[in-house]
Prior knowledge:
- By secondary structure, this protein is mainly α.
- It is built from six helices and no strands.
- The protein has one domain (9-127).
- One of its GO terms (cellular component) is cytoplasm.
Amino acid sequence: MDATTDKDPLVQEQIYNALCYLGESEPEEILNSCDEYLRQHDKLAYPHRVIVLKAMETVVKNNIALLDKSTAKEVIRDWQQAASNVLVAVGQRFINKVMEEVLTKFQPGILPHYFVMQTFANLSVSNGE
């Protein structure tokens, strides 16, 4: 997975495709490996983190019926946290665009999801003056 940091988009696409392909035969193993990789590389630049997250999303979508409930629950929490972190990182440069997207998740009469609120809070802290 270290090749996700390669600047060549073709290499990045190949890594994504390889993770998705491996995820077809061993979805839980790939999801756990991606999760562990993201935990070990918490300073990974967001474009490279997105590649791993997108692969995780594809593996989950394509294999949702095969996933153990505990794995699915853990992966969803970790995936949401990682996605929130990506939005906060992008927001350090493009705060208006990110805020615009996050605010679309607020619907009248509906309590926002925990990670929407956490992203909103982390955006305000990371961009506070």
